[in-house]
Amino acid sequence: MSSRIGQCFTVSLFGESHGAGIGCVIEGIPAGTPLDLEQIRKRLNQRRPGKDQYSTPRQEADSFDILSGYFMDHTTGTPLCAVFRNSDTRSKDYQSLKMHFRPGHADFTGGEKYRGANDYRGGGHFSARLTAALVFAGAIAEQLIEAQGIKVMTQVQGVGPLRAESFETLELTDAVVNQLDGEGYAIQKSVEADFLKAVDDARMALDSIGGIVEGVILNVPVGLGEPFYDAFESRLAHGLFAIPAVKGVSFGKGFDFVNMRGSEANDLFYADGDVVKTRTNNNAGINGGISNGMPIWFKCAFKPTPSIAKPQETLNRSTMQTETLEIKGRHDPCVALRAATVVRAMTAIITYDLWLESKRR
Amino acid sequence: MSSRIGQCFTVSLFGESHGAGIGCVIEGIPAGTPLDLEQIRKRLNQRRPGKDQYSTPRQEADSFDILSGYFMDHTTGTPLCAVFRNSDTRSKDYQSLKMHFRPGHADFTGGEKYRGANDYRGGGHFSARLTAALVFAGAIAEQLIEAQGIKVMTQVQGVGPLRAESFETLELTDAVVNQLDGEGYAIQKSVEADFLKAVDDARMALDSIGGIVEGVILNVPVGLGEPFYDAFESRLAHGLFAIPAVKGVSFGKGFDFVNMRGSEANDLFYADGDVVKTRTNNNAGINGGISNGMPIWFKCAFKPTPSIAKPQETLNRSTMQTETLEIKGRHDPCVALRAATVVRAMTAIITYDLWLESKRR
Amino acid sequence: MSSRIGQCFTVSLFGESHGAGIGCVIEGIPAGTPLDLEQIRKRLNQRRPGKDQYSTPRQEADSFDILSGYFMDHTTGTPLCAVFRNSDTRSKDYQSLKMHFRPGHADFTGGEKYRGANDYRGGGHFSARLTAALVFAGAIAEQLIEAQGIKVMTQVQGVGPLRAESFETLELTDAVVNQLDGEGYAIQKSVEADFLKAVDDARMALDSIGGIVEGVILNVPVGLGEPFYDAFESRLAHGLFAIPAVKGVSFGKGFDFVNMRGSEANDLFYADGDVVKTRTNNNAGINGGISNGMPIWFKCAFKPTPSIAKPQETLNRSTMQTETLEIKGRHDPCVALRAATVVRAMTAIITYDLWLESKRR
Amino acid sequence: MSSRIGQCFTVSLFGESHGAGIGCVIEGIPAGTPLDLEQIRKRLNQRRPGKDQYSTPRQEADSFDILSGYFMDHTTGTPLCAVFRNSDTRSKDYQSLKMHFRPGHADFTGGEKYRGANDYRGGGHFSARLTAALVFAGAIAEQLIEAQGIKVMTQVQGVGPLRAESFETLELTDAVVNQLDGEGYAIQKSVEADFLKAVDDARMALDSIGGIVEGVILNVPVGLGEPFYDAFESRLAHGLFAIPAVKGVSFGKGFDFVNMRGSEANDLFYADGDVVKTRTNNNAGINGGISNGMPIWFKCAFKPTPSIAKPQETLNRSTMQTETLEIKGRHDPCVALRAATVVRAMTAIITYDLWLESKRR
Fold this sequence. Notes:
Chains A, B, C, D: GO terms for molecular function: chorismate synthase activity. Chains A, B, C, D: Its EC number is 4.2.3.5. Chains A, B, C, D: Pfam families: Chorismate_synt. Four copies of one chain form a homotetramer. Chain A is α+β, with helices and mostly antiparallel strands. The first copy, chain A, has a single domain, classed as Chorismate synthase, AroC fold (4-Layer Sandwich), CATH 3.60.150.10. Chain A is 27% helix and 22% strand. Chain A contains nine helices and 18 strands. In chain A, the strands form six sheets. A five-stranded antiparallel β-sheet of chain A has the order 1-2-3-7-4, covered by helices on one side. In chain A, strand 17 and strand 18 form a beta hairpin. The radius of gyration of chain A is 21 Å and the shape is globular. The first copy, chain A, starts with a strand and ends with a helix. Chains in contact: A-B, A-C, A-D, B-C, B-D, C-D. The interface between B and C is medium-sized, with 12 and 12 residues. Strand 11 (246-251) of chain A pairs antiparallel with strand 11 of chain B.
């Protein structure tokens, strides 16, 4: 079904960006887990729009209310529902859009699918606003995988033609891994500055720009993922493509494998003491869909934010005539910046789900 | 669960490459459907190894036996089970592999996941042999979507550094669409010849090479796919990453979006008579995870076949020492060639599943 | 998973009786459905405790807040979340229960299952309070099946040794069918008076009493239910046994079939014009798990409310000594009375789910 | 979906009684389990028709072929497919039935649901023949739960008006528990003889008779079952009602609770050393849907076999006229006798599934 991800650890999202609120119901958190609410707020703050000029000036408080599944500062083991009330919703910004499909958005497809009954304001259920609830659930999942020694991190690895050093070659010391825990976008600070300049240039041009978010999962136990359909890549890609604006996902060398020979691409096994490792990690720690213990690194291509201030042609759904559209809302010039936190959240959710699933055997 | 894909039209795979056989159980075929067995055999033949020098010389008859769900030449509406008995299985080719992990294969991960109880011969349940059952199910799904006017096709679009013209720009006339129905790898015949030469070069070098399979779905009704998690991209990518050797999936401009501006990337809506279309199709016919009626085009990156004849270093799991491995089995030098049929099958399955799902509303 | 019922029309429940609130997330309501809020409130009122002396004097306003999936008085097609804030929760009534397991309740099992982290106040997530959210969802499902001409109704058919006339023999005219729509417990008013007296007797004795709720579904299309596992009986019984205090479910003649011969039990087919009917309806309109178009009638045995005012022996979980327990909370002397509305809700949910499922074929 | 039961341990059934064969695909068996094939054959033999005059004289060899998931006498952890080829299928016995609905069977409902495309011979997919595959899967599940110390047993507890002593009061010593392991129907031998006489009387009268199968699960760990929807009762009843001819299911006192007071019905907790027990077990070891460690005992009402030799009225689907039907096939006069083994199988499957599910937390 549409709103729910996961087999053992499940997250159901609900809500619309300009309705009463959004939220999630989470099942599968072990009973008696003390939630780190500060950590949850830190992640929400990283996703939060309006915190600098690189994102939309909309102010979303992103404060949440836990309605169930939480008692005396611990989870109860039963479904946990969290609600985020909507506040700063300038619906009138969207009223001119009622009859105009914004290019690159779900206004047309959502309207058709739901026969005109969809909440069209700000994308409604299709709004990236729902990722706040996802980040909430992801922060809990992150806490649960960290208790198993597993660590997820993400960075912005590309903006326009610019690229930061990849997790493939970065030495992932604790200092590096923790560097982006609270703020910042890329490990390599000099490139990060260039990224931000490129984003600002796009914004000044009343336009937007694409980006790459890269993720890595460290200390994954050997054996996560299922054959045939539930390969680790399948489950994670399913989640990643659900994030608004993702149009490509690759693991390890990804599309660069195309121009490689097998003798280069294969990662050779060796023993490091008792532990089986591979000399290279082109395959991103996954063989036959199952984790092999090496870091799982992957990339997500984000298209440029479709909402741009520059006038665009669109269709008036009442007249079926082409008209010029000027989007007056407040939008991120590069969705990849804030999306790094959303990718981290989704990755933590999928990883914990696969970890739980492997316990059943 | 691992072996089953789909919500409404489901396919469960079972079997190992060197056991008694492989097969599938399919649910969700409408009762009273007359199966086109010739079409199924044609698709199986396209996937079948051993038919030319570009694939492994293993001969797999790929003859199937329908055990249930089929009566008087029509489906009954109840589960359809098809079995493919294994025949040409030279298990002894694999016996030396019992203690040696082939690089890039699931020998190590499968052995660990199943605590040494996995059938290690030829990859066992992880073998690409299981894609025969997938192609069987996909041929049925193809028949079912064609009855709704939907058409799926795939081609090899890249081998090594070479690229054939993409479905993005090819004019998809009926002749073009049907060109690869029975044989052939790419629409653009001159490049196809170069592809085959590159594959042969890799084979002569006792090596293998990567490739790109591209797919397109035509005449998809508006409204397939579900928000939030079950975006069309999410569901299709889930299936595509389950195909052995896929390490990257992208929709439309995919990773090329990164270097685009929103004003270039957005596909502008216009009315073609009563029909809403977009002037470009960078987003591959999907907005907000929901089909918009334009062609859905996508690419899968296939890594080079990990089984190569060239000697490679590996680990002996009993001694935990590094040894040299020479893989004596018979393998494809470029897995992408035969995989085009598998991608077609998986795409048909997912598309029909989403089509059925949309009927519930 | 625990909190969710349904395949196509799904209802996820969350909440605890003495926490912030309870609620549900519903998926599968067709977009553009105008909800009849008055009808929802009527059903909630039927379930509501405190409305007469036959139920607990707890006052639960049962007012709900729809957070999502509802826009301009119509459903949007995306998940609908409704929240019921808790108000009249006298938590201190339950504090003495922290260390004492109430007999017949989930205090012991829930505590063990969740390693002591469960919200023990008033049963927490196990409380019958959650049935308010179920009745909300059921009222929507009822509206959806009525749009298809299907009608569900329930009555209290037994209390202690007393029995009212069954739906098996009652002539189900419109007047009879609508008789219990707003208030009342049994069609046969003379027996209803006896029921209420028996309940009051139990209450005066500081005790409780069991009962039977009977249901009937009229105008079910032929063909609902699935072979083998998802028989109509299987799916409906799954839901009915989830209702607190249900310990038996039977369809048609149920346990009376044991003492019948096949020649008596078989319902003989005949043609009533174009319509195939059966002369008797011992099998409750279901053959081989699939509806045959005749009324589906069934019974649920409710045990006596386990919470009674009479002192009972119990175990003190800290000392592991036996102690005397006096339950001071406010409880229904016969849970079956209010449960008739809950059975109606669950039946509507399951019926609509199976109806949607049958559309996929 | 229709053919699959279970969340973690899943069994998918396929096949028709007069087609090529029937079978199942099982997922969730731990890798490396050595299957006890003798035990599987013993259970199949208990279910097998034709072994005495109390069952149909059809001879079904019930020999199976394991196609996958089994290697060097151990399970591999991947899907296990077993096939039972059909042999003694006298299809011509059924040809006269093509146009006549047998009363009490799925001939009419299956024909309507599948628009006439169903395999009508011997009930097709609705045939009790499929329970052979269920017994196969159940024998494996039984082995898996016994490895956890959990024991399932079943007996015929009623035939017509006769009743054998119930598991409620029988002292369940090892000798008693193992008494029906290989043969026999009821623990109480004197009543068993009466049962068989009653069945034979029905057979001589060209008729059939109903029965009760009772089950008990011993040594269930505390905490199996899930709130709200996946109560132990809900999950087990779902499975039991899928067994052909089951029309009622009750747990513990079941329908006898109706005439009880709460003070009688409640099972009082006490400590037996470290172990929490209840003085009575009216609630069948389940509180709030969760197992409490006491024996889980339950009853299934089986209707009389609908296939009887006595002439019956039926409808000719071509003429829509009433005609007389004489069923010439070979059928059990009391389906409950052989069904005890099927109930045991289903109970083992559901119990192991819930046990696996509880491990995820």
